Fold:
Amino acid sequence: MIMNDVLGALKAIGEETRLRILALCARDQINVSDLTQILGQSQPRVSRHLKLMTDAGLLERFREGPFAYFRLRRDGDAAKLAEAVVHLLPQGERGLESDRRRLQALKEQREHRIANYFRENAPEWHRLRSLHIDDSKIERVLLGWLREKPARSLLDIGTGTGRILEILAPHYQRGTGIDQSHEMLSLARANLARAGVRHAEVRQGSMYALDLPDETFDVVTLHQVLHYAEDPQAVLEEAARVLQPGGRLIVVDFAPHELVHLQREHAHRHLGFSDDQIANWLIADGLLVNQPHYLPGEKLDVMVWRAERPTSVETGVLKPRTQAEIRS
Ligand SMILES: C[S@@+](CC[C@H](N)C(=O)[O-])C[C@H]1O[C@@H](n2cnc3c(N)ncnc32)[C@H](O)[C@@H]1O
Structure:
């Protein structure tokens, strides 16, 4: 790091609001609107702080649709400095603690909104789920994979009305669906009973803390769930935890898009995910990631990611793939 860069980074850190921003971005990826509410400062002011910190190499900025998000930068000398400063911040300091609590409250508000959305719209879900995409294309891909290699035990996280458990039923021996919404689960039970699926059960639970032992399932699916997650990385980590060695994780979600009205009207939290974003999270969980399947749609494109937990034999030999390898 040259002298000017060191000075620039120190100046960018050496101010109370910016230190608070640094502490918040060390925990989460945060957008300007959340930061404005937490810090109680005007948007132009917060944006100025963010620009300074980004220019100094402390934060990185990324886009989701029209929104800018910020997180601590992971590479470069300024990032090392940022990490060291975050490490030095006193645990339990009152101001920082209250920032953290405000952030937590914002997340909880959004989670309530999503829970309410599914409570209110459960009876309509069958119609709503096909509103933006042609489900049959996705289902054909999933069915193809399961037909090729059936599952002994399949877990569907965020199972909703149980559609995935229902269509894949001929290709697994024991199915489990988890969802937080009572209303969605009641419909799932009725749908599975109507379809004569007796080897699957559904229960209430959180996708962030599955009440299930490690390495239990040989297929785990997350179908159109991740874009509702406050913390998608934590959901994938939990899904990977319950995957047996050799097991497959299948994630279906939207590619990045700009349909902001889906956040307002249908409680979406994220405007889709890029291939890199999902692949990097899966790689961080120790999984081997295959090329995603890309399904273009009229308004929204869908991606289907498939990753595997290496078996114990493979572990010493195979390393998680790099991005270049995934794409080659
Ligand atoms: C878009 S629906 C998808 C349902 C189903 N996978 C499908 O494709 O029809 C998302 C589901 O995720 C569930 N969900 C949202 N947040 C959750 C959480 N924190 N824990 C468990 N389930 C959650 C919702 O209740 C809802 O049923």
